[in-house]
Amino acid sequence: MSHNISAMSNTTPSIETSASEIAAITPAHKRALSYSTTIETLFNQVMNTGMPADRIIGQYFREHKKHGSKDRRVIRESLFGLFRWWGWLSQLETSHKHSTWFQQLSACAMLEQHPWHDVTGAWNDFADWPQTRADQTTLDNQATLKDKLAAYIALSAIESCQITQLLPQWFWQLCPVDSTEQYALVNAMTTRPPIWARAQTLSTAKLITSLKQAGVEAKTSGYFADAISLGHKSINLNEIEVYKQGHLEIQDLASQVIGQICQPNNHEKWWDACSGAGGKSLQLHSLMSQQSTKFSGNITASDIRHKPLEELRKRAKRAGFEHISVAPWKGEVLPVDANAFDGVLVDAPCSCTGTWRRNPDMRWLDDASAITDKPILQLAILRRSAAAVKSGGKLVYATCSLSPSENEQIVKDFLSVTSEFELEPVIHPFTGEQFDMLTIWPQQADSDGMFVAKMRRK
Predict the structure, then answer these.
(1) CB-based contact 398:262 (threshold 8 Å)
(2) What does the radius of gyration of the chain's CA atoms come to, in whole angstroms?
(3) pLDDT score for 6
(4) Helix or strand (DSSP H, E) at 124
(5) How buried is residue 51: exposed, middle or buried, by Cβ count under 10 Å (0-12/13-18/19+)?
(6) pLDDT tens digit string along 184-231?
(7) Under a CB-based contact definition with an 8 Å cutoff, are residues 257 and 452 in contact?
(8) Rounded Cα distance, 50 and 53, in Å
């Protein structure tokens, strides 16, 4: 396999090195070489199969239980770091395949500021950097994205690197971003958001106390009374009692915006038309149950996939939520009664560009068709689902996309073919501004990206 790497090409980048070319003398060198071989294998597997990196690395760790917690952290964070900075790293190329690969690992470790210095030091040795350049590339904990760009250019001597290259060119074409916001967006996309959670059946204060006693970093969001940040460290949720008991659910802060915009009342009937595993169905139930002990409403969740609906059943049972039922989509026939719901939420299938912070591999696995292939389906689902809204009821359209063609344009196209619905203004929960339609950007509150529009049937 040739060593052909091109960040912006349509070909799949691939890396191949030969361990026999590396002289691993010290124990640190041997560990570093072992890590690099594993990371290289996983990287190529992601790129060659197009499967999500978290799925591939999860399968790898299930099959290789020999790895301790440090091994897992080095492998996982190095792999995701490569994807995070691939727009720059892919421009590196030397006359030797192994030098290119180790330069990419070394530069990635610098940009990510990885703390396993014995391993990164060995990667530096293998990278064979010119000494004069290697000496110029130290970053402190306060380093900005501009600092990192300067350090990377000093190390790599690739002066053509630009901040916008950390996202693919087609993204900028299909997700227009004001030039004044491009830096902030890329800065967010190159950092990991915290793990966001939601208080479900206990008060936020009690949950935070319990989480801190369990050694989990936890604090309130300042935006929603039930939102909790769990910090950036990996957490084994199955060891957290409040999670096992259903008092806590994991849900990104941007995703929580959707339920807040829905504003469900506890006597209303809601239909979550594209529920997946039911994160927003659970949120709707939680918001409704917080209003009164007399819960007279209900939520119906639908999806074309049965496995996510089974997961929703488990999550609802864990939380003790008895007012959620499921109704699978079967073909194009509406799985619920028409004109029957006070509120319908359509969280439509989309390109998921708003989740690229958590899934940096997807920005290099996907191409423009991830966006351009969706609008026809999105509009069809919205038009079909709207039939379930009763007179005076709410219709909420949402995606985790940052592209207007999947967001504003779908709503405009829908309203152009029906006179039964009208837009309702929504308030941006992080800025207080009023909008006809709302895009939550990752840089605004350290979250994913989401879109939401709220309509009402006349």
Answers:
(1) no
(2) 24
(3) 34
(4) helix 117-127
(5) middle
(6) 999 999 998 899 999 999 999 999 999 999 999 999 998 999 999 999
(7) yes
(8) 9
